[in-house]
């Protein structure tokens, strides 16, 4: 299956993907506090790496990742280094990508959301719903990265064991667990961390999670793209 990073592809290569699968991926994340142990781009970095691995199996182009998160840790609890983007900007940016990708001839788009603020996910989903209602020809599957593995008993978190392990595996060298306090509870208000204990994060756990997510997304794409009506 043909695949590539959109910005690195020549016209002939993009045209070949359009002829073969007409599939595109966008990793949609944020720039947001993820505990003292994690990089600011956790949401986007992990979703982008997952998209690359999925595209390798399903074919398709992977757009450059989008760092535009609404309802981040800054309005939530004042966490620093976070770039909060307004809801209308997120929705408008998405609408323009949907318009342009459909105009370019793509038939199936996966939007993998690495940032899960409830209102942010709602803004993305509402935009997709409205757009699909008014446009024919391109199907859109918008999912938070953990959603395809919910049935496997896996829950997403914020900078906890789930997200931190994923980044340790997908982008080695960016996480430093020694920046976390050695003892005591880690919580959302004080540390900006939720979910299972981030100190238990491992590369092996990240590998297990990443492989399962990729497997489920690939199955989902095949189900929706190859079997359903266009
Ligand atoms: Zn996150």
What does this structure look like?
It is a single chain. The chain has helices at residues 11-20, 42-58, 73-77, 87-103, 118-134, 161-170, 203-227, and strands spanning 3-5, 23-29, 60-62, 66-67, 108-113, 139-144. It has 230 residues and is of the alpha/beta class. The chain has a domain at 3-151 and 218-225: Creatininase (Rossmann fold). Strands 1, 2, 3, 4, 5 and 6 form a six-stranded parallel beta sheet that branches. Helix 2 (42-58) crosses helix 6. The mean pLDDT is 96. The structure holds zinc ion. Zinc ion binds at residues 34, 42-43, 115, 158, 163.
Structure keywords:
230 residues; binds zinc ion; 6 strands; Rossmann fold; 7 helices; alpha/beta
Average pLDDT level: 96
Instruction: Identify the overall geometry.
Output: globular
Portion in beta strands: 5-15%
Question: What percent of residues adopt helix (DSSP H or I)?
Answer: 40-55%
The appropriate CATH architecture of the domain at 3-151 and 218-225 is 3-Layer(aba) Sandwich
Please write the CATH class name of the domain at 3-151 and 218-225: Alpha Beta
CATH superfamily of the domain at 3-151 and 218-225: Creatininase
Low-confidence stretches: none
Distance between the termini: 20 Å
Helices and strands: which structural class?
Answer: alpha/beta
Q: What does the main sheet amount to?
A: 6 strands, parallel
Q: What hetero molecules are in the model?
A: zinc ion
The SSE string, one letter per element, is EHEHEEHHEHEHH
Total beta strand runs: 6
Number of helices: 7
Q: Give Rg in angstroms.
A: 18 Å
Q: Predict the CATH topology of the domain at 3-151 and 218-225.
A: Rossmann fold
